[in-house]
């Protein structure tokens, strides 16, 4: 094996230091707090006490799965249509899709709240038309809408990229072998864009399951998701250890779901995590 | 109408972005025929094939299949299958599933699919490759899978778009024979697109020579070679010396300041013509015995013969001979009357057939690269 030069090793040093400080160390801290009590001695109590949060886990998982499914149902056809338009239209659509991503998620969530609030813009508009006022904030629907609105671009872009990479000859070959456009979609386009789907699902599912501000702002405090619970534990020095334990379990759950999803993508090439 | 006509193209024209690619093409393709569309890149041969497959719709003109008008019929409803230039095998499927693809779309029973795929793999010499991923196959193997995937559907017509272009020479020769055998065994009409004139001559029943979006000549390989209709065809098919001549009378042609006997007639008196003389039809003799006399300016050893460039009064002839001649020597040339092929003047006159620059080989090489980029 070729010995690496001093320069090469120096060039990668900052990255290693960075990874150690901001990825590895926090993980170790989380693990340390999860398995210790307030006196710093080893305990499994934090983990075993988590059964109290099982409902929260299930609810978060439910919200995240529904939001991801809706994103996929909206995002896949959108990406499919985008890849079929002319290059000009395609570029405009891509910019429109990316534009919201340049604004902080938090601000976007706040503005959604301002729009949909009981006394908000949409509501006033409806009242002005003589319709009943909107009572949407605080429902499951509002939380899901927030997740879908915030994370949809992360679903569309990877799928759109894999659609664009798809060689047109495969579509011609499918048509040649007797596929109408519906059969071509299900037998050729869908399997060949699976890596994009897996990336998109990952990029929507992970932030959805761990979000806390969307549920707080749009859920009106009625939905205590796992992200909210973790945030609350860390605001109080006494419950640091429980917070760490929940985080650790959630990380493991996310890793398991990612592993399962990667199975679908046939060797897991081209995954952007 | 002729019973045995499978496909009839009638006055097909097609333009892309205002640029004419096909200009009033008419062609009949018969049942069980091996027909080749031959021409340089950009001549419209691939577009013709794509119109038959249904991937392009002609701007004007009609496409008939078994007598039915099919201009607007989508590809998936046509009884033709295509072998694509670079195979287009589905990367998410293994060899078996690729070949079974069309049968599954037709909802063929599983047992029948297994049987047919097995037969196909035997036909293309790929027994035991069922479970292999297509990405692990060599170019030649992928080519065979592509042929099997198309043939298993028992199409009435198989379209092949430069199927051997990506293979090396040796493999290409083997596949040419194999394709010919497969066509023989299955009795399916083959429409074959290539820019390789040798391939076209050795495989086809009928060759269609195309240039500038028009059909130049349709005929059997021997007809095309022996009786080219114009300078383009004569130059594109094999090597030719194409010389300006004048028809003095029937069977009397004057060229290179000499009058020769020939076997062609039917031209006007003193009509200017193009005269084709194939390099293998010129005999090297002693200078004093020759009808023409020239200076040898180049000799290339080709294995079976020498390729000799001879300067006769400024026009460079190519001659193929098994006798060695030395560069710089003066030799005599003798030509039999039946070696002259007389053609009417055409738009291609004067563009080909002089070996003073000898750029054909280069042109052919650049053709190949263009072809690849074009797809």
Plain-language structure description:
The complex is a heterodimer of chains A (273) and B (375). Helix content of chain A is 73%, strand content 0%. Chain A has 13 helices and no strands. Chain A has helices at residues 6-34, 45-48, 54-84, 87-98, 105-116, 121-128, 140-165, 168-176, 181-192, 194-210, 213-218, 226-234, 240-264. The longest helix of chain A is centred in the N-terminal third of the chain and has 31 residues, at 54-84. Chain A is globular and about 70 Å long. Residues 267-273 of chain A have low confidence and may be disordered. Chain B folds into two domains: 5-226, 3-Layer(aba) Sandwich (Rossmann fold); 231-374, OB fold (Dihydrolipoamide Acetyltransferase, E2P) (Beta Barrel). In chain B, the strands form four sheets. In chain B, strands 6-7-8-3-9-10 form a six-stranded mixed beta sheet, sandwiched between helices. A five-stranded antiparallel beta sheet of chain B has the order 13-12-11-14-20. A five-stranded antiparallel beta sheet of chain B has the order 15-19-16-17-18, with no helix packed on it. The two termini of chain B are 36 Å apart. At the A-B interface, helix 8 and helix 9 of A face strand 6 and helix 2 of B.
Give a quick set of tags describing it.
heterodimer; A: 273 residues; mainly alpha; MetI-like fold; B: 375 residues; alpha+beta; Rossmann fold; OB fold (Dihydrolipoamide Acetyltransferase, E2P); 6-stranded mixed β-sheet; 5-stranded antiparallel β-sheet; 9 helices; elongated; disordered C terminus
């Amino acid at each position: 094996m070729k010995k690496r030069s001093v320069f090469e090793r120096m060039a990668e040093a900052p990255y290693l230091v960075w990874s150690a400080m901001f990825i590895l160390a926090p993980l170790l801290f989380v693990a340390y707090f999860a398995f210790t009590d307030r006196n710093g001695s080893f305990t499994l109590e934090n983990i075993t006490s988590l059964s109290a949060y099982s409902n929260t886990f299930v609810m978060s998982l439910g919200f995240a799965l529904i939001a991801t499914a809706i994103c996929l149902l909206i995002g896949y056809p959108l990406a499919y249509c985008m890849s079929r338009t002319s290059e000009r239209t395609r570029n405009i659509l891509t910019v429109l899709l990316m534009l919201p991503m340049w604004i902080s998620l938090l601000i976007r969530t706040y503005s959604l709240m301002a729009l949909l609030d009981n006394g908000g813009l949409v509501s006033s508009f409806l009242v002005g038309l003589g319709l009943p006022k909107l009572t949407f904030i605080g429902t499951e629907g509002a939380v899901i809408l927030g997740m879908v609105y915030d994370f949809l671009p992360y679903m569309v872009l990877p799928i759109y990229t894999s659609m664009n990479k798809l060689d047109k000859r495969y579509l011609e070959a499918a048509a040649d072998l007797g596929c109408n456009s519906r059969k071509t979609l299900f037998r050729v386009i869908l399997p060949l864009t699976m890596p994009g789907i897996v990336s998109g699902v990952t990029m929507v599912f992970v932030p959805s399951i761990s979000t806390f501000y969307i549920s707080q702002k749009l859920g009106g405090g009625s939905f205590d998701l796992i992200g909210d619970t973790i945030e609350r534990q860390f605001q109080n020095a006494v419950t640091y250890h429980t917070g760490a334990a929940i985080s650790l379990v959630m990380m493991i759950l996310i890793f398991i779901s990612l592993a399962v999803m990667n199975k679908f993508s046939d060797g897991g090439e081209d995954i952007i995590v | 109408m002729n019973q045995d006509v499978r496909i009839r193209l009638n006055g097909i024209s097609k333009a892309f972005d205002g640029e004419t690619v096909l200009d009033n093409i008419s062609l009949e393709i018969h049942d069980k025929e091996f027909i080749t569309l031959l021409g340089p890149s950009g001549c419209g041969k691939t577009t013709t094939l794509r119109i038959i497959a249904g991937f392009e719709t002609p701007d004007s003109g009609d496409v008939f299949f078994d007598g039915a008008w099919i201009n607007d019929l989508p590809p998936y409803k046509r009884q033709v299958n295509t072998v694509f230039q670079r195979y287009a095998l589905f990367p998410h499927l293994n060899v078996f599933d690729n070949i079974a693809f069309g049968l599954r779309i037709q909802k063929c029973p599983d047992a029948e699919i297994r049987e047919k795929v097995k037969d196909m793999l035997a036909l293309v010499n790929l027994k035991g490759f069922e479970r292999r991923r297509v990405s692990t196959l060599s170019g030649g193997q992928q080519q065979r899978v592509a042929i099997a995937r198309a043939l298993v559907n028992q199409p009435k017509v198989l379209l092949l778009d430069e199927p051997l272009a990506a293979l090396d020479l040796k493999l290409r020769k083997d596949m040419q024979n194999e394709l010919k055998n497969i066509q023989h065994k299955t009795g399916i009409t083959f429409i074959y697109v290539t820019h390789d004139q040798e391939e076209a001559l050795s495989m086809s029943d009928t060759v269609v020579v195309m240039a500038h979006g028009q059909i130049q000549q349709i005929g059997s390989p021997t007809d095309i070679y022996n009786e080219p209709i114009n300078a383009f065809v004569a130059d594109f098919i094999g090597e030719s010396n194409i010389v300006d001549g004048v028809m003095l009378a029937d069977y009397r042609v004057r060229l290179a300041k000499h009058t020769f006997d020939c076997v062609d007639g039917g031209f006007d008196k003193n009509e200017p013509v193009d005269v084709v003389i194939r390099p293998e039809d010129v005999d090297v003799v002693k200078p004093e015995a020759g009808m023409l006399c020239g200076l040898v300016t180049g000799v290339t050893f080709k294995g079976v013969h020498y390729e000799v460039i001879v300067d006769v009064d400024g026009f460079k002839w190519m001659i193929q001979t098994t006798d060695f001649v030395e560069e710089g020597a003066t030799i005599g040339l003798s030509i039999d009357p039946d070696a002259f092929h007389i053609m009417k003047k055409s738009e291609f006159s004067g563009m080909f057939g002089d070996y003073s620059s000898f750029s054909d080989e280069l042109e052919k090489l650049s053709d190949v690269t263009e072809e690849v980029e074009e797809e």
